[in-house]
Write the structure tokens for this entry.
Amino acid sequence: ELALPLIRQSKPDVIITDIRMPFMDGISLSKIIKKELPNTRIIIISGFDDFSYAQEAISIGVDNYLLKPITKDKLGEVMADAKNKLDKENERDNYLEQFKAESQEYEQFSRVRFFNQLVSGAMSVSEVYEKSEELGLSLDTTHYNLILLDFTPMTDAAAAPVYSKHMARLSDQLMQYLKCCPEYIVFHWSMDTYAIIVKGDELTIDSCTRNLMDNIERRCMVFEDEIHWYLAESGAITRFSEFAGACQRANKKLSCRYMNPNGHIFTDEDIEAIKSYDE
């Protein structure tokens, strides 16, 4: 009873417990531990040479059931075995984490490569469908729009680490939102730029685009004093072959941020205004 809250707090690698204890016996304690901390190794010591106790201990995943009296050598042998099992589990977990990280990195690289090929016009229609299916991306619709989102921290060097945290929070929030919406496909195109394909039909493409841009704007405005953010759309298209031109149009609008760093959402009117200013 006294051990359980300490175990929950410290999360030990190995627990050695007697079976006979007041208020809560070792079997009951072990059941709770295995449920809450399945990776913890449990060694039970007991003066009862009763097969039913050992059978129950094995059924709940206890590692060893030792009968008293216990010699130092025997306990050392059991502890060494527990350590070897823990080392193997840690090695396996580290490998799985590394594999997961490498898989995510490869997936991101594959998605960026796919997007670059799409907007460069380097793929046929059949190749677009084939590669998008390999990546688990559904492009089955009649209309598309391409949105480019760029956000960077403020340039105050002394405050850069704080702003990096703001960028991470904003990025996480946006990614969580976009992943929940099947009508949007997001690509981390470059260091600071995300490309988002909006899917819809003739009746819904404009509203889907507007909803996305409004949602992005609301989230970015929370970090207005910490992050520069810029947004531009290409306009609706209906063919994969039009993605190259769509990317050029959106990128051209987004480039207005260099002339107007205090702006946020750039349109054709901003391009015309800059042209008039130059003239």
Q: What stands out?
A: Residues 157-163 have pLDDT under 50 and may be disordered. The longest strand covers residues 143-153. Residues 80 and 86 are 10 Å apart (CA to CA). The chain has nine helices and eight strands.
